[in-house]
């Protein structure tokens, strides 16, 4: 659904704001079967409301929440994070804390510090269900499409936004080691994920690091009769023959 764009003011028109809830209501009613309304960025549609004052923001958002409930639709408010590197992610949302307080769930899109081409979609708040896991995605530079990774990201936005510098350096080194391990271990044929994690554990590489390396290497995954399989992208020039199994893996299955 397109934004109402402008609201009438006498004989002229002016920029639509969230105070024009009646205009939005009419637009949803006329369009019919609307399921999603996106306000992007929300600060551009606050009008004369001071978005740093909790009471004013709550008063403006309450009718919007009522509209969402009345029409059974989802409203997504998009804003930015401030540059304060300390504190919880809830405090990093620009403007009033009423934005996240009034929302049923809040999410952050964060650049992966270990892979600048990768983005993490992580939970900040979720009060309708147990805390969900996050997701990761990249942008295909040829088609400009979002490519989601199939594996969940078990990371909260607080951790992604406040990771100490020393840990960043260590994690970056671990990722580099994990990427090299995956290229050597996978070789040129599909390999069971369970075998990958078993071997990585022997090398003291965590599951989280291995999954990050998987995304960085654009490794494909698919389900087979033997479980989840990982494979380097077809035609990868750096693919090598698979490493021989270590003796300890002899009873680990096919």
Give a short summary of the structure:
Helices cover 32% and strands 21% of the residues.
What does this structure look like?
The chain has 254 residues and is α+β, with helices and mostly antiparallel strands. It has three domains: 1-103, no CATH class; 105-163, no CATH class; 164-249, Arc Repressor Mutant, subunit A, CATH 1.10.10. Helix content is 32%, strand content 21%. It has seven helices and eleven strands. The chain has helices spanning 21-31, 54-71, 98-102, 157-161, 165-186, 193-202, 207-216; strands at residues 6-9, 12-15, 36-39, 74-77, 105-111, 118-126, 135-140, 145-148, 191-192, 220-224, 227-231. A four-stranded antiparallel β-sheet has the order 5-6-7-8. The chain has a three-stranded antiparallel β-sheet with strand order 9-11-10. A two-stranded antiparallel ribbon has the order 1-2. The chain starts with 5 loop residues before the first strand and ends in a 23-residue tail after the last strand.
Tally of alpha and pi helices = 7
Mean pLDDT: 83
Rg computed from alpha carbons, rounded to a whole number of angstroms: 23 Å
Topology order in helix (H) and strand (E) letters = EEHEHEHEEEEHHEHHEE
Domains (count): 3
Question: Secondary-structure blueprint of this entry?
Answer:
Blueprint: E1 6-9, E2 12-15, H1 21-31, E3 36-39, H2 54-71, E4 74-77, H3 98-102, E5 105-111, E6 118-126, E7 135-140, E8 145-148, H4 157-161, H5 165-186, E9 191-192, H6 193-202, H7 207-216, E10 220-224, E11 227-231
Parallel strand pairs: 3-4
Antiparallel strand pairs: 1-2, 5-6, 6-7, 7-8, 9-11, 10-11
Helix pairs in contact: 5-7
């Amino acid at each position: 659904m397109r934004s109402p764009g402008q609201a009438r003011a006498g004989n002229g028109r002016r920029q639509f704001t969230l105070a024009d809830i009646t205009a939005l209501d009419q637009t949803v009613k006329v369009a019919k079967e609307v399921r999603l309304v996106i306000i992007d960025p929300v600060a551009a549609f606050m009008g004369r409301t001071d978005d740093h004052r909790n009471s004013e923001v709550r008063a403006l958002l309450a009718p919007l929440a009522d509209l969402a409930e009345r029409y059974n639709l989802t409203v997504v408010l998009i804003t930015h994070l401030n540059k304060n590197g300390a504190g919880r992610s809830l405090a990093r949302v620009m403007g009033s804390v009423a934005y996240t307080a009034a929302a049923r769930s809040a999410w952050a899109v964060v650049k992966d510090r270990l892979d600048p081409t990768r983005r993490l979609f992580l939970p900040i708040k979720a009060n309708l269900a147990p805390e969900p896991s996050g997701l990761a995605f990249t942008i295909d530079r040829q088609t400009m499409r979002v490519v989601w990774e199939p594996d969940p990201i078990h990371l909260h936005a607080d951790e992604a936004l406040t990771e100490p510098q020393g840990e960043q350096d260590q994690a970056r080194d671990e990722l580099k080691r994990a990427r090299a391990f995956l290229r050597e271990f996978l070789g040129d044929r599909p390999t069971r994920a369970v075998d990958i994690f078993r071997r990585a554990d022997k090398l003291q590489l965590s599951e989280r690091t291995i999954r990050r390396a998987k995304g960085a290497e654009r490794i494909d995954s698919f389900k087979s009769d033997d479980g989840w399989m990982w494979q380097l992208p077809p035609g990868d020039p750096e693919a090598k023959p698979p490493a021989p199994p270590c003796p300890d893996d002899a009873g680990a299955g096919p």
